[in-house]
Design goal:
Elements lengths: L1 E13 L3 H10 L7 E4 L16 H4 L9 E2 L12 E2 L21 H9 L7 H11 E3 L13 E3 L7 H12 L15 E4 L4 E2 L2 E2 L2 H9 L5 E4 L2 E9 L2 E9 L2 E13 L2 H11 L2 E2 L1 H4 L8 E2 L11 E8 L6 H5 L2 H14 L11 E5 L10 E6 L15 E8 L7 E3 L10 E3 L6 H18 L10 E4 L8 H11 E3 L31 E3 L14 H19 L1
Parallel strand pairs: 1-2, 1-13, 2-10, 5-6, 13-24, 14-15
Antiparallel strand pairs: 3-4, 7-17, 8-9, 11-12, 12-13, 16-19, 16-22, 16-23, 17-18, 18-19, 20-21
């Protein structure tokens, strides 16, 4: 038996991750509009959602992570990867790296060149600024007073300063701000924190809006499918406490569940490739070939170097007195290693001199471990992870089963193209060159991964990249923006689903191509612009 959620809503927002929190905030600002937001996870009432280093405990924990896995990947020599996604209000912004990164102006100008009016750099910059409460203050690049707090990191490491010096010796410029449109350079990442605490989208946007009587949040809700009548989305069917519930809207349904979640809801609703849906017994409501295709992600090659004569987090972690001091420093000053983002130092550069702009990003960490969720190594070491910012490989996300609790088939197709294999090989070469610079020689870096026995030829390095490569958690593109005549397009430039009225997707899945850096901040921008479009179109 199906229960009807009382009341009609003007908007139903599916997913309270980064995008959903912002969309719900903006739409509920009009007291005449009733907004319902549905979240599969629970409240963020766990200490590790708020202490920055808590990502070590949240990633790989079913309390906070969907616990997805990829299929075995041919480009990764048959390995399958854990594929973390946040399962809590705030979504992945509650468990991610907290790195504030817009990408490059050319990324968005490319979207505009694809015919997506209103998505060039000059168009999106005002939305970035509106969102922000930036520690650098108001300027041509940044805004203040918004819900998205951005601060400088609250600690430094001598070993990371040495890596920065080494990069400078390679001719890479230093920068104090990666977010001016050109992120090529060396610098410490700015982070979504406030006085040493994680600043998620839930803290910045959802919680302040929940004081409004016209905004209703339902948690621990598993969205099953859309209710589509006469070509229009009129509601959502979901499962809560083992009960099937329907909620209806007289306005719009807005999917904000991300590249995985929104794709699953669309496909379970019969919107997607017919050849994927029919074998699962799902009637095709609208055949859109692009739903679940065009998956893009940043693959990082996690090179690890042992070091000598300089401190890293590895030995600090195993020293009880130092761990005690870390806790005390955080308690008294909100400083020290407990405020650490997973990566502190960033380097954006080119994998070879022929690249027209920076195409690889380094995340440099004063620690090493085999993978998230496992202990740090017992030897002093750093991780120097390079990722291809604009991969040409394309993967897919599709249903494994029509049941709403079934994990999807995630196939990123990493290193599928020769271009991506070449960039991966060149990125390892750049890493090795970086670690040979004079600034690091006092600490005698010793290559632990991929290992000194790996040769310098393209084939050996591409295979090594497959052995050490892992996701950096940036899936985008599975419901991409495009014109009606693009068979792979799912939404138009106003984020309306082609062929279904009253339905939008507003999250990272709409990116036609991935941005050149961490994707959480671009997702927030898409939400800011998307919500403004909803409001404008309702007038």
């Amino acid at each position: 038996m199906t229960r009807r959620l009382e009341g009609d809503f003007d908007y139903i927002v599916v997913g309270a991750g980064t995008a959903g929190c912002i969309v719900a905030n903006r739409l509920s600002a009009d007291p005449r509009k009733r907004v319902l937001i549905l979240e599969a996870g629970g409240r963020d009432n766990w200490i590790w959602f708020h202490i920055p280093v808590g990502y070590l405990f949240a990633i790989g924990n079913p309390r906070s992570d969907w616990m997805f896995k990829t299929e075995p990947e041919p480009g990764l020599n048959g390995r399958a990867l854990a594929y973390p996604r946040g399962k809590v209000i705030g979504g992945s912004s509650a468990i991610n790296a907290m790195i504030s990164m817009r990408g490059q102006a050319a990324d968005y100008d490319h979207w505009r060149q694809l015919g997506l009016t209103g998505w060039g750099w000059d168009d999106v910059l005002p939305a970035f600024k509106t969102l922000e409460d930036h520690f650098l203050g108001a300027s041509e690049h940044h805004g203040v007073g918004g819900g998205w707090r951005i601060e400088a990191p609250r600690l430094s490491w001598k070993v990371l300063d040495a890596v920065a010096d080494a990069a400078a010796q390679m001719g890479i410029r230093r920068t104090g701000d990666f977010n001016t449109g050109n992120n090529e350079g060396i610098g410490y990442f700015h982070v979504n924190q406030k006085r040493g605490r994680r600043w998620s989208a839930a803290r910045g946007f959802l919680k302040p809006a929940l004081t409004r009587p016209n905004l209703r949040l339902e948690t621990n809700v598993l969205a099953d499918r859309l209710i589509v009548e006469n070509g229009r989305a009129v509601g959502v069917r979901f499962i809560q406490g083992g009960e099937i519930v329907e909620a209806r809207t007289k306005g719009e349904v807005i999917l904000c569940s991300g590249s995985i979640g929104s794709t699953q809801v669309l496909q379970r609703s019969g919107i997607g490739p017919r050849e994927w849906l029919a074998p699962l017994g799902i009637d095709t409501v609208l055949a859109r070939e692009g739903v679940g295709r065009n998956l893009q992600d940043h693959l990082q090659q996690r090179a690890i170097y042992k070091v000598n004569g300089i401190r890293t987090l590895n030995e600090t972690y195993y020293s009880l007195p130092r761990r005690g001091w870390m806790g005390l420093d955080y308690l008294l000053r909100r400083r020290g290693p407990l405020t650490m983002a997973p990566s502190q130092l960033g380097i954006f550069t080119r994998s070879d001199p022929h690249q027209e702009r920076a195409n690889i990003q380094f995340h440099v960490q004063p620690l090493s471990l085999d993978k998230f969720g496992e202990p740090l190594h017992r030897f002093p070491a750093i991780t120097v992870a390079a990722c291809n910012l604009r991969p040409s490989s394309r993967g897919s996300i599709r249903l494994r089963d029509a049941k709403p609790d079934a994990a999807p088939i995630i196939a990123p197709n990493y290193l599928d193209t020769s271009d991506d294999r070449q960039v991966a090989a060149d990125a390892i070469r750049v890493t090795r060159r970086l670690m040979r610079q004079a600034a690091l020689s006092p600490y005698r870096p010793d290559e632990y991964l991929p290992g000194p026995t790996i040769g310098d030829d393209d084939a050996a390095l591409a295979k090594a990249a497959g052995d050490i490569g892992t996701t950096i958690f940036h899936p985008v593109g599975t419901a991409k923006m495009g014109h009606t005549d693009d068979p792979m397009a799912v939404v138009d430039e106003r984020l309306r689903v082609h062929g279904i009225d009253g339905l939008r997707v507003i999250d990272a899945s709409v990116m036609p191509t991935i941005t050149s850096g961490n994707t959480n901040t671009p997702t927030a921008m898409i939400a800011e612009k998307g919500a403004a479009m909803v409001v404008a179109d309702a007038r």
